[in-house]
Amino acid sequence: MKRSHHDSADLLLEIGTEEIPPSYLLPASQQMRDKFELFLRENLLTSTEILTMYTSRRLTLLVHELSSHQKEKTVQILGPPARLCYDENGTPTETLIGFAKSHGLKPDRAKVIKTEKGEYIALEKVQKGRMTGAILKDYLPELIRSITFPKSMRWSGDFRFARPIRWILALYGNNVVRFRVAGISSAGYTYGHRILFHKKIAVKYPEQYVENLRESYVIVSPEERLHSIRQGMEQSATKVSGRPVMDEELLLEVSNLVEYPVCSLGRFDEQYLRLPRDVILTAMKTHQRYFGVVGRKDDLLPYFLAVLSGDPKHLHTIMRGNESVLQARLADALFYWDTDRRIPLESRIESLKEIVWLEEMGTLFQKTERLVRLGTLVASVLCADRLPVVERAAKLAKTDLATTMIKDGKEFTTLEGKIGMEYALQSGESQDVAVAIYEHYLPRYPGDTLPETPQGAVLSIADKLDTIVGGFIAGHIPTGSQDPQGLRRHATGMLSIIADRKLRLALNPLVDEALKAFASQDLLRTKNVKEDILNFLTARIESWLQEERFRYDLVDAVLSTRHDDLTDARSRLIALDDLRNSADFTRLVIAQKRVANILKNQPELPALDESLLLEAAEQELSSAISKLKPEYEGSVKKGDYRRAFRQLLTLRAPIDRLFDEVLIMAEEKSLRMNRLTLVKSTKDLFNEVGDLSKIVIE
């Protein structure tokens, strides 16, 4: 990399701070990159590469070969009205001469342009680009001020940042870009590791920056730190013939906490291996941020891995302290475990009466009653052979929330469901029931594991729907970015299960049953909530289908008629998408648009009277519908929508002929109403698969 030449040089900006929370770093660095890319475009500057790096104490922007000046550009300068600039002979007036002279140009460079206000004089002038160094002096402080964080601190007046800024390194080539932000002046130096090398480090050129820091015990590249941690943990684990349990979320967190990672192996008492694996790993992860170690058979070993940012000389002392802290947490967990196992889960059902589920919405005992009711209903539709398992699992699903492990062990609250499964097995429940207790919480977030068993899927759907309905009754309706009870997440989780298992499940009757369950407990405070719930669920289904890249108008078409069954709607969409480019289908859509228009605002229509079908075209259409209807309804019932749409295509010609040859809006009322009824019968038939009038013809 060349340090600099007359056309370009590297730019380095480092914002040195107090420790920034790990989750803030990546979004902040992405902002820096995005904002600088926009800055380049707006200022006609170029570069070959933009890099961002960060640690807990610094945010860094490194730009390779940033052009030394802006590109020249031609600007148009609008002048006075044209009528004032030339006399009757076309000779420039003093007005034009003065205008041109003020911009260093001659009058013959002027031209007349038309604007909304009339004809005006304009000059075109080549504007030389500013030097990049001068632009950066103004822009870099603006860039620093523009970075936003979920939470920020204010100091030095109204300046806000995640944490106080302690130094700013700003170099363009080998020159310091001079500016001042929040009481801090930019300079040509940085600082090394807070403990191992807390000294000023002069940086002469941007390309030396990464190596200068590495020599000062700071690895500024997040990718390099991650690699170093992985490698260090693997090497440490081999000392006990093990391998690390790579928790990717935790790995990212610790890599953003340390500037110079050092991995070390610790040990805990083997007696704690009596605890479930997830309890041990959770005790390690929460607060301590340790990683577990497993053997060749994936069995947990009595060791842990810690990622430290300190002097390797004192690792032994540090690790003894870490071992003591972990031993204490595991001792607490073992106490909870042994205490809880003395009471079978079934005996905890009554204690759910003392635990509030949602403010003013009853207890966990009442939620359990509703879960049994709704879960068995869903099971009767989807997996009747698992009904006893679903009923038993529903009764026990929330009992782990009454255990000391969950109530008193604050770091173990994330294990709800998992610990319920473990306690169920300890209580002698079947594997099927135990797994369903765990799986009914899945998925907990987008991309999470889905239930693998039918009973787990059924219970999860029932629980999430009950939560959604309860949330709406309580008034916790999602609006904009506000969703205090996570109802969108519950709806997405429910739809994920339905889509994954291709379940034919209409949500409308389930919402009815859920509302009845709340009403039976005197918890239904409003009678007008069903429409809001169904609109919410339909909107989630619509979003789901559009995210699958189905056209918005096709989605609108299928959801306009039947909107509460995701799998059914998806099947209709696929069939519709297959046919939409055919000429016959396009003409059919056009016909349905005519049908929709002619039926708009019509009163209730009478039954079809065959004796009033006087024209051959209306007789032909009525006969075609009668012949088609049994087979068509059979196709719809089977969910064979490709066949159903092909059957509808046979009606195109009779429908076209009706509109071409018959006056639908006849003067005689009986004829007019009967013909409208015939037209409506085609719409009713089509509505079994979708409202084709919603489709946009391209």
UniProtKB/TrEMBL annotation:
InterPro entries: DALR_anticod-bd (IPR008909), Gly-tRNA-synth_bsu (IPR015944), Gly-tRNA-synth_heterodimer (IPR006194). HAMAP family: Gly_tRNA_synth_beta. It catalyses: tRNA(Gly) + glycine + ATP = glycyl-tRNA(Gly) + AMP + diphosphate. Keywords: Aminoacyl-tRNA synthetase, ATP-binding, Cytoplasm, Ligase, Nucleotide-binding, Protein biosynthesis. Belongs to the class-II aminoacyl-tRNA synthetase family. GO terms for molecular function: arginine-tRNA ligase activity; ATP binding; glycine-tRNA ligase activity. It is found in: Cytoplasm. It is an enzyme of class 6 (ligase). This is Glycine--tRNA ligase beta subunit. GO terms for biological process: arginyl-tRNA aminoacylation; glycyl-tRNA aminoacylation. Residues 591-690 form the DALR anticodon binding domain. NCBIfam families: glyS (TIGR00211). Tetramer of two alpha and two beta subunits. Its EC number is 6.1.1.14.
